[in-house]
Amino acid sequence: MNADASSSQSAASGPQSSRGKSVLFCAECSFENPVSEGWLVVSDGDERTIVCPKCGYVADHRTERSTPTPRAD
């Protein structure tokens, strides 16, 4: 592949984000940070809840063995 093809391919796919894949966003107040930095993580047995530290919105709640399910908002 030549340089022209690779640069046009990047432009076609849209702007590249400098954020890592592990960044979590709050749907209520737009707080964003990696899960390991700043989010309140509450574990109770095999359940884990991730709460926004700014507004208290529950960003994720799951059991240890479950997979995330899409929200029906």
**How are helices and strands ordered from N to C?**
HEEEEE
Mean pLDDT: 76
Which strand-content bin applies to the residues?
Answer: 25-35%
Radius of gyration computed on alpha carbons = 17 Å
**Estimated helix fraction:** 10-25%
Q: Biggest sheet, in brief?
A: 3 strands, antiparallel
Distance between the termini: 43 Å
> Structural class of the secondary structure composition?
alpha+beta
Poorly predicted runs are 1-14
**Biggest β-sheet: strands ordered side by side in the sheet:** 3-4-5
- Helix run count: 1
Number of DSSP strands?
Answer: 5
Shape call: globular
Assembly type of the chains comes to: single chain
Q: What do you see in this structure?
A:
With 73 residues, the protein is of the alpha+beta class. The protein is 14% helix and 30% strand. It contains 1 helix and 5 strands, in the order H-E-E-E-E-E. The longest helix has 10 residues, at 3-12.
